Amino acid sequence: MSMELNLIFVEKYLINVEWNKNKEEHWQVKGMLKDISNQVFTFDIRRLKDYKGETAKLVKLPNKADKILIENKSEWVIIDTKELQKFVNKHKKNKIYIKELDKQIEWNIKIKK
Predict the structure, then answer these.
(1) How far apart are alpha carbons 81 and 61 in whole angstroms?
(2) Could you give the CA distance from residue 56 to residue 47 in angstroms, rounded to a whole number?
(3) pLDDT of 44 over the 70 cut
(4) What is the pLDDT of residues 58-85, one digit of tens each?
(5) Are 87 and 50 a contacting pair, CB within 8 Å?
């Protein structure tokens, strides 16, 4: 099964890149956010897909990725996986819209394209 990745994000915004070879860990790349952080994070950089008629990203939780990347037309949104897990546990949801996360999760990073 092939996986579409946001390679443009990696090229433009990550430094000290290391690719993951273990597919069971649910992250694809490790690196630092250029000019944003000096901390190394693991990222789920899979693209959004059509899922049952909706554009979505299926995320298994708990997850070994530190950050989950969501792309829209104007920006990249980087969501903290632990914050997402807390949100899911608190609200007992299995379908979450990015607009909900934007207002309720504190640790989001947005990068304009």
Answers:
(1) 8
(2) 9
(3) yes
(4) 777 888 999 999 888 888 989 998 888 8
(5) no
Q: Indicate the domain borders of the chain.
A: 7-112
Is pLDDT of 2 > 70?
A: no
Q: In three state form, how does the secondary structure of 9-78 look?
A: HHHHHEEEEEECCCHHHCCCEEEEECCCCCCEEEEECECCEEECCEEECCCCCCCCCCEEEEECCCEEEE
Contact 12, 71 (CB under 8 A): no
**pLDDT given at position 3:** 59
Tokens of 71: 């792309």
